[in-house]
Design brief:
The protein is mainly α. It contains 28 helices and no strands.
Length: 617
């Protein structure tokens, strides 16, 4: 869910999530939207409607984004204008129109920077880095993402940090740096194991699946993709169901299980059409063509691949078009249609040099062009193409070999330096011993020294393990404290905003003839204000950080009520009276009275501090 400066918008969305399932939520949003005047709240609801429809009914999502932009411009609501441009950027990205997506993202980013909204600036940078990745500009995408990681660390944004880690892992995979790819994706998964973000966890599983696929471990890859697919189905995310079905189908093509491949690819194509994502439809159609080509059913393969090429021409995605053209040309060659194959590879080469700019891909096109020319009995040009293929393939091989040698040399140099340091330390020790002790003493002390070193090494390793365990516990405790504080402040802000929203709805109700929709809204807010689920979650976090606090209070002061226990917990966190009032949903005056009653029960004199007593417990 996208962030916003409008806290009442977030709170309203939170209410709807509690009382409704997905389809009911959309109906509730439409009901409220139809009764609202043209104000900033309506702008926010349009954003919610966009989020609910972008992966299901993409044309409706586009209409909501345009209406949001128009209304925000009328109201001179700058943040609303920026959010609308962001929505339109997402729409065009899903449709494969990269230039339009980038234009809207940059328009949104400029406004967020002007307004000093760092969180929304981060999310726009993330969206732009994805576009750079899809254009095969991996280094630039990595530069943006690594900068975003540092910003998210400062903000303490765990979920966003995990999302960024997962994306960076994918970038390193495409750059061929597999170890770094694994490192970042496992960082993402370790965070998702601690927070309730099933969709993001599924994204990370897909990242691991992709890595296993690059190593040729297609069975292992499918273990991860099928786990991810199950999560997407549970969450009814049709867009990523389509993405993952395509990945599963691609793995089955590699495993030569073509019937299963076609089953999942058909599902991917159907889902892609349903959410009107032509990019995914084109990718799945290309893989379907590959499956038929592997079965040597070239006429069916060519039909699917021509469809993929047609789709990718319309989406203005050069990299995707290059891949589809390549497989189509290969199918033409295999079917004996060398003239069509040559024409296809000529176009493919031209686009590859502009878009992909990768010798590792271009040398494969030279090889296929040589086959086309050979089939046309143009042996001289066929030989020239094959020589170019051989030269480029040797270049790519040499580059890989040089990279491997450099990695080995770095590892060797590091180990050599460590050995030299160890040797120097040993020599210094021996020289010191020669200056101080006799030959006999050296023999005796040498034996003792060895035993001491063994003992010292064991102690040092134990201390090191203890230190690491302590650091791990400290990190976990710090993380839990941050979660607790965040949850408490969220409760405070949510109740404050809901109360404000309730008052506004009451005013609208009194001024409008139709009161039914507003009365429903007020009941919803009242339900959320009285809901104990949020407090139960808070209590769970609190107990993890301040173990035995509640039991100690009940033991020392059995007369304390459950409401007073809540107040004591919030005082333990050193929150302000205003924040406590918002969380407990009572007035500041009510907090004063509650503190007074609590002092009497705890038998605290006027000279003693209630806060100091609570902090000492």
């Amino acid at each position: 869910m996208k962030t916003s400066k409008l806290f009442f918008f977030i709170s309203f969305s939170f209410c709807l999530n509690i009382i409704a399932q997905e389809s009911q939520k959309l109906d509730s949003l439409l009901s409220v939207y139809s009764q609202l005047p043209n104000d900033t709240l309506k702008v926010s609801i349009l954003g919610e409607l966009f989020d609910e429809t972008i992966t299901k009914e993409v044309d409706k999502a586009k209409a909501y984004a345009h209406e949001r932009l128009s209304l925000s411009q009328q109201l001179d609501f700058k943040i609303g204008v920026a959010e609308a441009h962001y929505d339109l950027g997402d729409y065009y990205k899903y449709r494969g129109h990269v230039d339009s997506a980038r234009t809207n993202y940059i328009a949104a980013l400029d406004i967020f920077k002007t307004e000093g909204n760092i969180q929304d600036e981060i999310k726009l940078n993330y969206a732009l880095s994805i576009l750079e990745f899809e254009e095969a500009r991996y280094d630039y995408a990595l530069e943006i993402s690594l900068d975003n990681i540092e910003k998210r660390k400062v903000l303490g944004d765990s979920a966003g940090l995990a999302m960024e880690y997962n994306f960076v892992g994918g970038l390193y995979e495409y750059k061929g740096e597999k170890e770094k790819a694994y490192e970042y994706i496992f960082k993402a998964l370790s965070i998702y194991e601690k927070i309730d973000k099933p969709l993001r966890k599924a994204d990370a599983l897909n990242g691991l699946a992709s890595l296993e696929g690059t190593f040729g471990k297609y069975k292992k890859s499918n273990e991860y993709t099928l786990q991810a697919l199950e999560i997407y189905r549970e969450q009814n995310d049709k867009l990523y169901q389509a993405v993952t079905c395509n990945a599963v189908g691609q793995n089955y093509v590699a495993l030569k299980d073509y019937e299963k491949a076609k089953k999942y690819l058909k599902e991917s194509i159907a889902l892609s059409k349903e959410v009107k994502n032509s990019m995914l439809e084109g990718g799945a159609s290309r893989n379907m063509g590959r499956a038929f080509a592997a079965e040597e059913n070239y006429s069916e393969a060519i039909s699917w691949l021509e469809q993929a090429v047609k789709i990718h021409r319309e989406t203005t995605r050069p990299v995707a078009l290059v891949r589809s053209l390549y497989y189509l040309g290969s199918a033409y060659n295999s079917n004996g249609q060398y003239r069509e194959g040559l024409e296809t590879f000529n176009e493919c080469m031209e686009l590859a040099r502009e878009a992909a700019n990768s010798p590792g891909f271009i040398f494969s096109i030279h090889k296929e062009k040589a086959k086309s020319l050979e089939g046309l009995k143009n042996y001289e040009n066929a030989l020239a193409e094959f020589k170019e293929f051989k030269r480029l393939s040797d270049t790519v091989f040499e580059q890989k070999k040089i990279k491997q040698v450099e990695e080995l040399r770095t590892k060797y140099d590091t180990e050599k330096k460590e050995q030299q340091i160890a040797l120097q330390d040993k020599e210094i020790t021996v020289l010191e011993q020669k200056a101080e002790i006799s030959t006999l003493q050296k023999i005796l002390l040498g034996g003792l020294l060895v035993l001491s070193l063994i003992g010292f090494y064991g102690i040092r390793q134990k201390l090191k393990r203890n230190k690491l365990e302590k650091e791990k516990v400290d990190v976990e405790l710090a993380f839990k404290k941050k979660e607790l504080t965040t949850h408490a402040l969220h409760l405070a802000k949510k109740n404050e905003v809901l109360e404000s929203l309730k008052q506004k709805a009451q005013e609208l109700k009194e001024n409008e003839e139709s009161k039914k929709g507003y009365q429903q809204l007020i009941r919803t807010i009242n339900f959320d204000l009285q809901d104990d689920n949020n407090w139960q979650n808070f209590s769970r976090y609190f107990e993890e950080v301040h173990k035995d606090f509640n039991s100690n209070i009940k033991s020392k002061y059995p007369q304390v009520t459950s409401n007073e226990l809540r107040l004591l917990a919030l005082l333990k966190m050193n929150l302000s009276s205003k924040e406590i009032a918002n969380i407990l949903n009572i007035s500041p005056e009510g907090i004063k009275k509650a503190r007074y009653r609590l002092r009497k029960k705890l038998d605290i004199t006027t000279e003693d501090s209630l806060q100091d007593l609570v902090l000492s417990l």
